[in-house]
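During the second half of the funding period, the structural biology subgroup turned its attention to how the target accommodates small molecules. The most pressing case was FE2/S2 (inorganic) cluster, which had performed well in the primary screen but for which no bound structure existed. We therefore specified the complex as follows and requested a full 3D prediction, including the ligand pose.
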Amino acid sequence: MAEPIPAQKAPYRVELEQGRTYAWCRCGRSAKQPFCDGSHSGTGLAPDVFKAEESRTVFLCGCKQTGEPPFCDGTHSSL
Ligand code: FES
Ligand code: FES
């Protein structure tokens, strides 16, 4: 299995819409960060699919090293 690579060493600010399903890119290879575009194919990695329980602003991990996917937990600051 390939390792995730950082898309950027900072989170992405995203406005989530209640009830909508999102696929956060775990592999770092998507051209549509922070979301999956299928580029993980062949890596053995898969996106983190989640449904927004409410409409709110979140910070999704861009470095792909977070311990709390899909959210930024501050790990990027030590990379
Ligand atoms: Fe990265 Fe799909 S492109 S998980
Ligand atoms: Fe990955 Fe913050 S961007 S932990």
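Two results from this model are relevant to the next phase. The CA atoms of residues 2 and 43 lie 5 Å apart. The longest strand covers residues 12-16.
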